From TrEMBL:
Keyword tags: Iron, Metal-binding, Nucleus
Family membership noted in the UniProt record: Belongs to the pirin family.
SUPFAM superfamilies, alphabetized: RmlC-like cupins
Entry-linked InterPro entries: Pirin (IPR012093), Pirin_C_dom (IPR008778), Pirin_N_dom (IPR003829), RmlC-like_jellyroll (IPR014710), RmlC_Cupin_sf (IPR011051)
Residue ranges occupied by any Pirin N-terminal domain in the UniProt entry: 24-117
Compartment(s): Nucleus
Protein name as annotated: Pirin-like protein
Residues annotated to bind Fe cation: H56, H58, H100, E102
Domain of life where this protein originates: Eukaryota
Predominant location category: nucleus
Tagged with keyword Metal-binding: yes
One Gene Ontology cellular component annotation held by this UniProt entry: nucleus
GO molecular function, one term: metal ion binding
Amino acid sequence: MEKPRQVVRKFLARPQHEGAGAVVRRSIGRFELRYFDPFLVLDEFSVSAPAGFPDHPHRGFETVTYMLEGAVTHEDFEGHRGTIKAGDVQWMTAGRGIVHSEMPAGPGTSRGLQLWVNLYSGNKMIEPGYQEIQSKDIACTSADGVTVRVIAGHAMGVRSPVCTRTPTMYLDFTVRPRGVVRQPVLASWNAFAYVLEGEGVFGAERCAPVGAHHLLLLGQGDGLEVWNKSDDRPLRFLLIGGEPIGEPVAQLGPFVMNTEEEIDMTVNDFECYANGFEKARHWKSQAMVALGVE
Ligand code: FJE
Ligand code: FE
């Protein structure tokens, strides 16, 4: 590593309400940080029944759901359905259109992260698709007090099987007390860290430690150094990076295109059940049927 990246901005993600009674700590996608190319949203969510994220559409990007605790059941308008549990990841390509529900499964609180990754204009209208990886199948390795789970990309000699349309790295590091991480990140990519547990010193050893629910935007460089200076607490953080797309972004909630005209067309497609939204006409999730929602 020649030039370690430094922290250029720090955000504390405070809880806010989203969906139907769910709570999210949103870091990317809020007013102060609208877009961090190619990332549109990062939500740390916490939800228990009957709250959840009932039937809603997406177009023009990917959602990556990574579970920390509990489980989420998803169902979509094509009949695709499944439950993701702690440690599992769902990498969903909305492409031209998905309508689905995401609801907590089982008792207790379900917690996790949802990242929205933008797509290049040429990929926005591709067929929707899913990549689901169970916890036991996630590439994972340990060395010198550092454990990494590789959700996307590669680290410490192991590689994720996930195919990312927009080149992306998504790493989940756990660092034992007094441990240190040195991880290369392509110099041309945008990258950030998000702290899940414990406290870490990011970028330079003299910096103040940063705790849970903080997002750290990283400046230019070819890698990241992180220290766990604690004597007794492990540090867990995500390191996420991606190739900046560099195209205009036009967004209306869950629709992300390049121009306002494309957004108008998308609203029209959704309302008229056209161009990828055909199956939404006669569909309602079982979760909504069970709740008796009209
Ligand atoms: C959405 C409001 C929403 N963060 N984290 C508006 F709540 C959502 C949405 C989610 C979501 C779902 C999960 Cl499982 C986790 C989330 C927002 O579903 F898409 C729009 N447009
Ligand atoms: Fe969704």
